Automatic annotation (TrEMBL):
Keyword terms, alphabetized: Signal
Protein's UniProt name: TRAP transporter TAXI family solute receptor
Cited Pfam families: NMT1_3
Keyword Signal: yes
Signal peptide segment: 1-26
Protein species of origin: Actinokineospora auranticolor
């Protein structure tokens, strides 16, 4: 019998040790993933680009393709139709019933977005009801901003045709239009601070509409939303913090993804989080302990296995 040379035995032992320490046994060379990731240079997209690089490097897979989209509704549609394998989405969109009965599953809860309804501080709009008859931008078509704006407008009798002069704009376009007096208000749902709104506040005094009156009914109808406040210092506002709603964001996959792959994606996601936060500010808010809280969206079995092992 031929005996293995000492050098080969040492190499094999070293390889085995590195495998145990690094988790390199979870390699997925055949996993060709597509990530539905929102607008170019948005938080979803920036996070997706970082994760695509990370997953390729740590899981031995081809570089995942990052798909530019209009936002959460399109992301979930792509995921459930098979045009994407991973999707970023706000919880309100993810929790909606979808055609055919298919529902996404969550890998993790990531960070919260905060609803901004922005007006000029020197204008007449003081309350949500004052939007009636005004020129209001409601986000890009098929975006998460438009989704939440439509919900609120319908709930508070501003959704009928003619109730307001509705405009479809991205947040940067909305901020410029408000600055130039071309619109009276705009909706935005995003992290704190949002750069486009910070830049607007540098040149125009702004007000964020307080939703204290609207929150009880809104949360009763849609418990996926949480009450939150935006500190006045965020955008150099005058007065007290602004009460608004917060909506969690989820990292989603389909129920068809293998538990082994799902578990590996979640593991590498959290391992990469400290470094990712240096490039994507929203990643600072990601917390492993609360990431398991994806109700009303079911946690994927592979993600559940990861959190159970981590005792999250």
């Amino acid at each position: 019998m031929t005996r293995a040379r000492p050098g080969l035995r040492f190499a094999a032992a070293l390889c085995a040790l590195l495998t145990l320490l690094s988790g390199c046994d979870a390699q997925f060379p055949e996993a060709r993933l597509r990530i539905a990731a929102g607008n170019l240079n948005g938080v979803y997209n920036n996070m997706a680009q970082y994760l695509a690089d990370t997953w390729q490097r740590t899981l031995g897979m081809p570089h995942p393709e990052v798909l530019d989209t209009s936002g959460s509704p399109e992301n979930v549609t792509k995921l459930l139709s098979g045009a994407a394998d991973i999707a970023f989405s706000a919880a309100d969109v993810a929790a909606e019933p979808h055609p055919g009965g298919a529902q996404p599953q969550a890998l993790a809860r990531i960070y919260n977005d905060y609803l901004h309804i922005v007006v000029r501080a020197d204008g007449p709009i003081q309350r949500f009801a004052d939007l009636r008859g005004k020129r209001v931008a409601v986000g890009s078509p098929d975006s998460g901003v438009e989704f939440i704006a439509d919900r609120m407008l319908r709930m508070f009798d501003l959704g009928d045709p003619g109730a307001l002069d509705r405009r479809s704009m991205k947040v940067t376009e909305s901020a410029e239009a408000l600055r130039d007096g071309k619109i009276d208000a705009f909706f935005w749902s995003g992290g704190l601070p949002t750069e486009a709104i910070s830049r607007l506040a540098d040149v125009v005094s702004i007000r964020l509409l307080d939703l204290t009156e609207e929150m009880p009914l809104l949360r009763k109808q849609y418990p996926v939303y949480n009450s939150a406040s935006i500190p006045a210092s965020t955008y150099r506002l005058t007065g007290r913090p602004v009460n608004t709603l917060a909506v969690p964001n989820f990292l989603l996959v389909s129920a068809d993804m293998s538990p082994d792959l799902a578990e590996a994606l979640v593991r590498e996601f959290f391992d990469a989080q400290p470094a990712m936060a240096k490039q994507v500010q929203a990643a600072l808010a990601i917390d492993r302990q609360s990431a398991i809280e994806t109700d009303p969206v079911r946690l994927h079995p592979g993600a559940e296995r990861y959190f159970r092992a981590e005792k999250a």
